[in-house]
Every structure is written in C-alpha cells, then in structure tokens.
Amino acid sequence: METGNLSVWLDGKMMNYNEAKVPILTHSLQYGSGIFEGIRAYKTNSGVAVFRLKDHVKRFFETAKIYSMKLGFSAEELEKAIVEVVRTNKLESCYIRPFAFYSDDGIGMNTAGKHVSVFIAAVPFGAYFGGGIEKGIRCKTSSWRRINSDILPIRAKASGNYLNSIIAGNEAHAAGFDEAILLSHNGYIAEGPGENIFVVRNGRLLTPGGESDILFGITRDSLIKIARKEGMEVVETSLHREELYIADEVFFSGTAAEITPITNIDGTIIADGAPGPITKRLATRYRDIISGNDSEYMDWLTSI
Fold this sequence. Notes:
single chain; alpha+beta; D-amino Acid Aminotransferase, Chain A, domain 1; D-amino Acid Aminotransferase, Chain A, domain 2; 2 domains; nine-stranded mixed β-sheet; 17 strands
C-alpha cells in the first residue's frame, strides 16, 4: 500500500497521510522526545483482530506518565481510534503505530507547556525477519551496552531510547549479521534492539529479568503465560553471555519479530543449528492464538 493512500488519525481526526504535517523544528524530531507503541492486527477466521490492544494502550499511557506527557485522550478513545484506523484502511495483517510527540516548534529543550499531539497509523506487515520459524537468524553481541535506568527510563517505550538500538543494529548488520544482542551495564544478557530474548536449557525456559535493563515486552509476557500454562518451568534470571553459546535453543520475541529462532551467535552455532522443538512448539501455539484458533486466549483479541 502506498503511504499516500493511507488514512491516519491525528489529534482526534481521520485524514490522509499526506495531510498529517508538523513543523520541521518540532521538539520531538529534534530531541527524540516522542513515545510510541508497536501493535499488531491479524486476519482470523472471524475477521481482523488486534492482539492485546488494551495492554499495549496501557503501556503507552505508562510511558506518557513517566515522561509527564498529557495525551489529552482517554485509553478508551485511543483504543477506538486504533480500531478505526485499521478498519478505514481495510487492512488485515498489519502493524499499528500510535505515536505521541511534542508538536510545538522551538529550539528550547524544556517541554513545559508544549502541545502534545497523538498520531496513529497502520501499515500492511508480514514477517519481520523473513525466514519464518523454520529458519533461524544470526546475531552478534554488540559492543554497545543496553541503556539503564540510571541514564533513561528503560520501562518507557520512548523514541530517544531507540538510538541505542539503532547503533547496535547498525554494528551487527555491518558485520554481516541479521541482528544484535545487547548486554546490560553489568554485563548480563539484556535483549535485542527491538526484541526480548529467551534461552532453552535442560528443558527450562530462561529469560532476562528487570535487573538486566530490559523493556517488559507484551509478546514476552504472552509467552511466559503460555509456557507456564503448558507446564514449562519459566525462570526470569540474569544470564551470562556464554550461556547463549551452550543453550539448547535461543529465540527472540517481540511484536514485530513474533517468535524468531536464533541459530548462530557470534559465529557459534547454537545446538545443531536448527530451530529447536520448544521454540517451534511455542511458535505454533502463538500462531494459533493470534489467528483466533485458540479459545483459551480469545480475550487477547479485539475484533475490528
């Protein structure tokens, strides 16, 4: 779909994408002071549905509170607007981007009294890495460390935080890898540039916890809940870098990445170099859920 044909939502009004304009000196463009969410909608047997809409909007409001941004809309209003954007564009599987930013122009960094705009767009979206569950990706441990809460609020999904992700990803891509893995300031495994990470070891599912400076991903939370209901032992713990090399399986999770196997890290092949059985099992269950084929988790879907 051409972006010029998209209908988007800006400050309570639907409009054409090309009509949604802000000053070039807008505060959030200069200083990275915007906040955002990444949400997915999927085609199901009973129509299009948004995955965990309320949880994403809740996190959006939590991020706004951390940065003292007054959004000017209720959670219910933004949920309705997200549904309206997907419906108006007649989209099926798509990626939805709510974005709040200081739309005032001016050089000063102080945000007091500056106007906050809220924007929502949705675009067609498929597999983020392209290989699907049958093909893993190659990752490089970045020389750049993950930011921590002594520097910026890591629980916030804020635009400026992702400069950390961009520079780590650029380094990995320049070295011929598909994605980066960042370590926390204390040297533990943190996450990918836009993904949480899971390790399978001796039948247990391990994932970094809050002490490793992670963003608490909604897909991560979904997988923890799914795995525990299926009787798997899930442990949120600190993980050393070398534990990745000797893992039975490693995979990323995220709204864009969904469940993506990692089969090579820093040139070390993980296990036999193929996506493992637990990764595949969780990916199959996750696919059933987002497709509306799992009655146990229907409350995670909001119909369009």
